[in-house]
Fold this sequence. Notes:
alpha+beta, six-stranded mixed β-sheet, globular
Amino acid sequence: MGNLTLPEPIAAYFAAEHNPEALARCFTAQAVMKDDGRTYMGVDAIRAFMAEASAKYSATSAPFALERGDGFQVVRAKVAGNFPGSPIDLSYRFRLEGGLIASLEITA
C-alpha cells in the first residue's frame, strides 16, 4: 500500500484479500456489498461471494488513492487477476459504522 494510510477496517479488508473468513470480520452483520452488478446482503452472503470470487479470479489489489466525503471513503486500487481486462483500476466506496464496513460498492 506504499505511503497510503487507510482507516483500520479498510486496511484490514485489503490485507485479508484471499481469506474470506477474515474478510467477513471486516463487515457489520447487516452489511451490503455491491460488485459486478449484484448485491450481497449480510455477512454470510458477502463471505460466500468473496470465497467464490477469490477462488475464481485469484485477484490481488493494490490501493493507491483515498478520498473522503459525504460519509463515504473511496479507495482506488489496481486489481490484477484471472479475468478479462486485467489489470484494471477499481473504485471501492466504503461506508464505515462502529469500526466496521457497513456498505461497500465496487465499480470500474
